[in-house]
Amino acid sequence: MSVGEVWNNSDLKQKGSHQPKIDADSGFDPTSGIFHSLSQLSDPYKVPTSPDLDTASYVLSRFPGPDEAESQTALIDSVSGRRVTYAQLHRSVRALAASLYHALEVRKGDVVFVLAPNSIMYPTICLAVFSLGAILTTANPLNTGLEIAKQVRDSGAKLAIAAPEEALKLGPTGVPTILTTRTGDESSVCVEELIECCEPAHDLPQDGPRPTQHDTAAILYSSGTTGTSKGVILTHGNFISIITLLRWSVNATSSQDDVFLCFIPMFHIYGLAFFGLGLFCSGVTTVVMPKFDFGAMLDAIKAHQVNNIAAVPPVILGLVKYVDQLKPELSSLRRVGSGAAPLSKEVADRFREKFPWVELRQGYGLTESCGAGTFFISGEQAKARPGSCGRLLPSFQAKVVDNETGLALPPGREGELWLRSPTIMRGYLCNDEATAAMITSDGWLRTGDLCYFDGDGFIYIVDRIKELIKHNGYQVAPAELEAVLLSHPDILDAAVVPVEDDEAGQIPMAYVVRAGGSDLTEEQVIQFVATQVAPYKKVRRVSFITAIPKSAAGKILRKELVLQSKQELTSKL
User: Most C-beta atoms within 10 A of its C-beta, which of 135, 165, 254, 551?
Assistant: First the structure.
């Protein structure tokens, strides 16, 4: 029986010593210590096995038929209201790919660096690059010139595509740069012109080298929240696998009439896989925001009757904290997904209390797993298990590994989550040591996340193993304390980090964002937490801050807070 198939009672009977004994409820095989997905992909959603297939060809082949594509809206610009149909998107991708090939001589294996905020042009750029067999590498527009130069050198970029306001950062790199949109400078080349000026006869040559599933499609840089950012090598096969899973999950819960809102950055795997590629395979409409803005999000939901949002925990927390009076603005919402960072049970419960008509579902994935891992197939499942990230997606296997013994653990036991699937990265760019530390010889990805499975195969992420605070020999999970802090009515946001201590080793310190007008004190915060956790988990110090530093994906940048805590301690001494 292949990975991802559903097991029934007859399958559980022993058919020979070589047959696994997989529990029908949890998916756990005690003989191997492996958790198997309890879902399967039916024939329309089988991952294509042909090696001669690339990401763009696969996505474009899933567009609506010719007649429907001319009228079906693929993208809407939230600022200008401009609409792009599936037919227009298809033509733009082909035209840009041809122009990049003929006019700029971009070839298979060349690295193209993209530095731009979200736009309705972003998916066109990505799909055109993939069409050529060129390699996409993306960056956060907020990155500094030094950070951008490092990524350009590390990735070996031959061409850059940048938003006009970001192009100056690429000047010192010496990489040829084209702009995403027109400016007053007639000497500059832009993507819009390349699309418009492409001659109909200038298509891609059919006899040239074509990308395959085994070729590198993208080099995406991990956020570096706990260490140096590394280039994650993802293949066309990785993307085709995740797109297939997304198509399966979206089609199982949505319809072609659904409208999605995109403010998740497309330079991040979450935004790229979901909005830059995957949703086009389901024929839905996406409203694109250039960046997240709370008020603009509410306006877009109301104006375009958005039913689906892919979000991160800070956005969900903001909805819980701020919009009691704005519920009518959100009446069209039906589903909100959460990913990229942990969503606490407390925040999830409060969201469902305030917005009972909205399904809230949390998922789990990493850049190294092409954004995939776990998923809730229904809102009712998620509601019944508010602290869980769902079950393994089809084609996924998992282990829960004891850090000290290296043994695989059964349901109910905490350990490091290991994943194996066709979406797992090839490795880190030019970093064999880091790759070997992350991926085992038999293909298991060590996620670095502490987790456990329950008896029904639902996974619960406890925290990052490297972020656990060691207090007097006990392990304290910052995420648990943050969830307690966020339940306080006068706390808008919070983060917990370790502070070195001579006696205890480390103590938990909380950074807290107070609500406007609140006079909450350090002692009140400490006592509030102390009444809800074991003594060894208590917060020992509190510092009030105007905003918690976070990555574009909503992950707390703990290393910045740890550095700040050291500076505060030094200044006091």
Answer: 135
